[in-house]
Amino acid sequence: MIFRRLYDDELAQASYLIGCEVTRRAIVVDPTVDAARYTRAATDEGLTITHVAETHIHADFVSGARTLAMLTEAALCVSAEGGPEWRYRLDDRLTIEPSGGQPARLAYTPRLLRHGDTVDVGTLRLTVLHTPGHTPEHVSYLVADTTVSDEPIGMLSGDFIFVGDVGRPDLLERAAGVADTMEPSARRLFASLQAARSLPDYLQLWPGHGAGSACGKALGSMPQSTLGFERLTNAALRATDEDAFVRDILTAQPEPPRYFARMKRVNRDGAPDPAPEATAPELSAAELDAAIAGGGFAVDTRPSAWFMSEFVPGTICVPKSKSFTSYFGSVAPEECPVVLLVAREEDLRPLALRLHHIGFDRVAGWAVAGEVIADRRAAGLPVWTLQPAPLDDVRRRMDTDPSLRLVDVRNAAERSGGVIPGSLGISLGDLADWGGRAPREAPVVVQCHAGTRSVIGASVLRAAGFTDVTPMAGGYDAWTAAGLPVVRPSDG
C-alpha cells in the first residue's frame, strides 16, 4: 500500500492519497481545491487517481472533491447518510460540455455510500462506517490492504476522532444555523464512539485535522495515532456517562469563524471552482479609497507592528501568517469584494490562493501598502496609526474611567482558563456586530493572548468608526506575567 498524507498547515487539514501497489490505482480522501497538488503527488508515486472520497460536508475549507473527480474522471464517493437537509446534492451523472465537435464525455460518476459499503481500489478495500456526531452524514473509512490481510490496518477518521480530541458536534447549529441540533448531535457522537469500541486497539488513526483547527477544542499536533493509544489518553474516548460527555463536549468550544456557515452550504450544494483572480488591478491611493467607500473589504497583510505604525484609513489588519485564513474568515463579511494590501507584490498570488481555499474569489484589486501610504502622505491625505496601551495604563484607566471597555477577543476555551477582571469576552468573529451596537465615542482597549488578534480587533473597530481604540500591549500573557489579577469567568 502506498500512503501519502498531504497536510495544509494554514488550514490544519489533512488529505490522504492511498494507492494500490499492484494496479497503481489510487483514492484521494478529503481534498482541498488545490487539485494540482494531488495529481502531482499521484504522478510522483506512479499512480492513477480512480476514486475521490469525502468523510463529510466540510465547514472550514472549500472542498475540492468534485473538481478533482472531474479532472481525473474518477468515481466520487460521498456519504448518503444523515437527514435530507445536510445530504450531498449531486446530479446522478455529470458531464463535461462538448467542444470542438467532440462528443460530451463523462466527468465523474457519483457513488453514494452507506454504512457497511465497500470501495475497492485495486487490492485496497475501504469499508464505510457511519460515524455521525460532528455532522449527521459523517462517515469514516476502514482501510485494508488485502494482499496482506482482510483485516483493516487503519481508519480515515475525518472529523470523528482526532489525536487527543473528537469532532465538535455544535457546528451544524452554531455555524449553519440549524436550531436545536447541538445536544442531539453530541448524543449521536457519544453513540458513535461507543460503537467504535468494537474496533481493535492496533488500528492506525488517520484524522482530518491537527492542532490549530477550529473543528475541535483540544486537537493534538501528532500526525497520527492508534485507537488503543487514544483510548488511554483521549478523554472523549474514555467517557462512559452520556450526560457528562454531552456537557463536556459542548463546553468551551471555540467560536467558529464567520465563513464556516457559507462553507457548509457551498460544500453541500457544490462548490464553484473559479481560478483565483489573476488580473485584479493594482490600485492607486485614490482608487483604494473609492474601493473601500464602495464596500470593498480592504485587508492589510503586513506584520501587525508595521500596520500599527501607519495604515490606510478603513483597512483591516490581517497579517500574512499561518493563521491568515482563520483570522480573515473570522472578520470578513460574506461575499465581499476583497482588496489586498501587501508588503511586496510577490505576496499577492499566494494570498489570493489562500482566500480561494475558503471561498473568497472576488479579489477586486491590490496595492503595495508602503507605496499607497507614501502617496497619501505626499498628497496630504490622512494616515492612521495605533498606539499599543501599556499594562499599567490599562489598569489605571480601568480603575478611573467607568466608560472604558476592555474587550477580550480570545475564544471561549481560552477565556475559560482566566480573564482580566472587568473585561468583556467578545470573540473576534463577533466583534463587528458588537461594534455596531456599542457607542463609537466610548474608549476601547482590545486584548487577546499575545497581541496579534488585539491589533486585528482594534483595526476592525477603528474602521467601524471608533475613535478611541487601541490594542493592549502584550495581551493576557503579559498581564499574567506581570502578576496582575485574573479571575475565572464564573467568578464574576
What is this entry, summarized?
With 492 residues, the chain is α/β, with parallel strands linked by helices.
Report on this model:
The chain has helices at residues 35-44, 65-72, 171-174, 182-195, 227-233, 235-238, 242-249, 260-269, 285-293, 304-309, 324-331, 348-357, 369-379, 391-400, 412-415, 431-437, 452-463, 475-481; strands at 2-8, 13-19, 25-29, 48-53, 75-79, 94-96, 105-108, 110-113, 118-121, 124-130, 139-145, 154-158, 204-207, 225-226, 297-300, 316-317, 338-342, 363-368, 405-408, 424-425, 444-447, 469-471. The chain is of the alpha/beta class. The strands form 5 sheets. The protein has a 6-stranded mixed β-sheet, covered by helices on one side. Strand 15, helix 10 and strand 16 form a beta-alpha-beta unit. The longest helix is centred in the middle third of the chain and has 14 residues, at 182-195. The protein is globular.
Name a few traits of the molecule.
492 residues; alpha/beta; Oxidized Rhodanese, domain 1; 3 domains; 6-stranded mixed sheet; 18 helices
- Residue stretches low in confidence (pLDDT < 50, at least 5 long) are 92-96
Structural class by SSE content:
alpha/beta
Number of strands: 22
> Class of the largest domain, according to the CATH hierarchy?
Alpha Beta
The best one-word shape is: globular
Secondary structure: elements and pairs:
Elements (H helix, E strand, L loop, with lengths): L1 E7 L4 E7 L5 E5 L5 H10 L3 E6 L11 H8 L2 E5 L14 E3 L8 E4 L1 E4 L4 E4 L2 E7 L8 E7 L8 E5 L12 H4 L7 H14 L8 E4 L17 E2 H7 L1 H4 L3 H8 L10 H10 L15 H9 L3 E4 L3 H6 L6 E2 L6 H8 L6 E5 L5 H10 L5 E6 H11 L11 H10 L4 E4 L3 H4 L8 E2 L5 H7 L6 E4 L4 H12 L5 E3 L3 H7 L11
Parallel strand pairs: 3-4, 4-5, 5-8, 12-13, 15-16, 15-17, 17-18, 19-20, 19-21, 21-22
Antiparallel strand pairs: 1-2, 2-3, 6-7, 9-10, 10-11, 11-12, 13-14
Helix pairs in contact: 1-2, 4-7
